[in-house]
Design a protein that fits this description.
Blueprint (H helix, E strand, L loop, with lengths): L1 H14 L8 H31 L3 H22 L3 H23 L5 H19 L3 H24 L9 H77 L8 H31 L9 E4 H11 L1 H7 L1 E7 L5 E4 L1 H18 L4 E10 L2 E9 L4 H4 L20 H11 L3 E7 L2 E9 L25 E5 L3 H13 L3 E5 L2 H11 L3 E5 L7 H9 L9 E5 L8 H9 L4 E4 L4 H11 L8
Helix pairs in contact: 2-3, 2-7, 3-4, 4-5, 4-6, 5-6, 5-7, 7-8, 7-14, 8-10, 9-11, 11-13, 15-16
Length: 587
């Protein structure tokens, strides 16, 4: 027992020779080479003794000694940390030995076994050790040349094998076949082990990514709740400034409100970009969902979203529309994400004061959009602009460095390309995508609230939200529209109140205790007394914001709209205008 333990420790020590301070990924190939070299030298010396006993010839003895001690030299190279030399020596010895013994022994080595040995052992072995594509190609070429030489020599007998008796040839055939099978099994075992290790690492990485994603989902959900309140308060303050008869405000106060709206908008963009990045890492990016959209209006909405930051920096945005039509078939969500990121970048990094120019035009069957701002990008940074986490710095506003990376992914997803160039002190980003015109004009949606808000006197809205601050902000907005409101904290309370009050619209948060928004929606649509009341779902889910699948699911369950946090009052106003019994004219 003690003897077996010592042999095991000796073998482990040989395998680990030269692996000190190596990371696991680099340590394993060295261990494989050491183990294979020790195994080869053992087989060479043991089987070589049998061969020399059967055929007393120096043509067998000298090559056996060279091969055996050469393999021990491989271990010595690794112990001196000369890993490349060790790898080359090991494969070179096997390569030369395969050609020499096959030629020398003739029929004593089955040609089929030699072919299997070369294809599996040498090819797979080199792939296991070498990662460089060029080295792998050279290995394959060398093996193919050796196979060709063996086959040609076997047919034409350029080199005549040594004479062997029938018994000697039979014994050698058994020994060589067994030895080569041992080598083949060793490489196959090593490959299986590598695959298991890689699968284990992948599983571990997936668990880490899942935990990271869960953490981000919860963290950003928590972030969006206070951000929703901040954005809502900022919108209310802006509405108060526009109200007739409101107290006179200074330019400084008006600028502070603009800055607050800009900061809220920028915070939302940063969160959305980070979440989109995580969607890419998780392999769950957007599916294209085309619909008829008003393309001019989409571009104007993107410009409006960035006007707060633009005003804060003294930047104006100019729009030049040159498309022959206004309605196209396109994925509106993806298009807006692309253009919004480009306009946002242009506004953030433009020289102040200046003008950002947004242009849309068509050529052949392609639609082109460009965003131009004053200010050049350094030439050494141009190549890495579309790489993840590549970002310029701005003293007033900053980003995450993932915006342009996402833009490139989205443009390519829509079948287009994006380009950037600098000329005459200005930088222009332009992208193209296939265009499909449509004759079915969708309903135009206002990109901002009208200066003069209409009144919905006599209308009732039930607000369901467990967050008291969100309740108060939403109620204040609805009251400005003349709407009577009633609030409750969960879906279970809402079912009772809805039957009692018969509201004109129900606005529900997605996540609440006792009964969430989705469960409430299902119960509401199966309760005859309130089944026809429009239900608006507002969600702050991190990975579900703009999630077409979840929105589709909720709409199929009966929701009239699905809005994300932070909530835009202009979007909510559009929904209210559309679904209240008395329709309002488009503003």
């Amino acid at each position: 027992m003690n003897w077996a333990f010592r042999l095991k420790q000796l073998f482990i020590g040989i395998c680990n020779s030269g692996t000190e301070n190596l990371e696991p990924r680099r340590r394993r190939p060295v261990q494989y080479i050491n183990a294979l070299s020790f195994l080869t030298s053992t087989l060479v010396f043991s089987l070589g003794a049998v061969f020399f006993f059967l055929v007393n010839s120096l043509l067998i003895l000298i090559p056996l000694m060279l091969e055996g001690f050469g393999m021990l030299g491989v271990i010595a190279f690794n112990s001196k940390k000369r890993y490349n030399m060790a790898n080359f020596t090991m494969f070179a010895i096997h390569y030369v030995a395969a050609g020499y013994w096959t030629t020398l022994l003739g029929n004593a080595i089955p040609i089929e076994v030699v072919v299997a040995f070369l294809l599996i052992f040498l090819t797979c072995g080199s792939f296991l050790v070498y990662t460089e594509k060029k080295v792998r190609i050279y290995s394959i070429i060398a093996i193919v040349l050796l196979l060709a030489f063996i086959q040609v020599n076997a047919y034409f007998k350029f080199i005549v094998p040594i004479p062997l008796s029938t018994n000697a040839a039979f014994i050698m055939r058994l020994c060589t076949t067994g030895g080569m099978l041992v080598f083949i099994l060793f490489v196959m075992f090593a490959f299986v082990k590598e695959i298991e290790l890689l699968l284990g690492s992948l599983k571990k990485s997936n668990k880490t990514l899942a935990a990271h994603a869960a953490f981000l989902r919860e963290t950003f959900h928590e972030l969006k709740t206070p951000l929703n309140s901040i954005y809502g308060i900022a919108q209310l303050m802006q509405m108060n400034l526009k109200e007739p008869g409101s107290n006179k405000v200074t330019d400084e106060q008006e600028q502070e409100v603009t800055n607050l709206l800009a900061a809220s908008r920028l915070s939302k963009d940063i969160i959305d970009n980070v979440l989109d990045m995580k969607r890419i890492e998780a392999g769950k990016f957007y599916d294209i969902k085309k619909d008829n959209i008003h393309i001019r209006q989409c571009i104007e909405q993107c410009i409006t979203l960035n006007k707060y930051i633009a005003q804060m920096r003294g930047i104006s945005i100019q729009f030049d529309y040159k498309l022959p039509g206004d309605c196209i078939s396109c994925d509106e969500i993806l298009f807006k994400k692309i253009l919004n990121n480009l306009i946002s970048n242009a506004v953030k990094f433009a020289v102040s004061p200046s003008t950002v120019e947004v242009t849309a035009w068509a050529h052949n069957s392609e639609m082109y959009c460009s965003v131009k701002n004053l200010g050049e990008i350094e030439s050494d940074k141009m190549k890495s602009l579309f790489e993840v986490f590549a970002s310029e710095r701005n003293t007033l506003v900053e980003g995450t460095g993932v915006g342009l990376y996402l833009v490139k992914q989205l443009v390519e997803l829509l079948g287009g390309q994006i380009d950037v160039y600098c000329k005459d002190g200005a930088t222009t980003f332009s992208f193209n995508m296939p265009i499909e015109y449509s004759t079915d004009m969708p309903q135009q949606v206002p990109s901002s609230l009208p200066n003069q808000l209409p009144s919905f006197d006599g209308k009732k809205v039930l607000v369901i939200d467990d967050n008291l601050m969100n309740q108060q902000i939403l109620v204040r907005f609805l009251q400005k529209l003349g709407i009577t409101t009633q609030v409750c904290r969960n879906g279970k309370e809402a079912l009772v109140l809805a039957v009692e009050l018969k509201p004109d619209i129900i606005i529900s948060d997605m996540h609440m205790p006792v009964m969430d928004g989705k469960e409430f929606l299902v119960h509401a649509k199966t309760t005859p007394a309130i089944a026809q009341i429009p239900v608006v779902i507002i969600s702050g889910d991190a990975f579900n914001n703009y999630n077409v699948n979840e929105a589709t699911t909720l709409m199929s369950l009966g929701a009239c709209a699905y809005l994300g946090k932070p909530l835009s009052f202009s979007e909510l106003f559009t929904v209210i205008s559309t679904h209240l019994p008395e329709k309002l004219p488009t503003c």
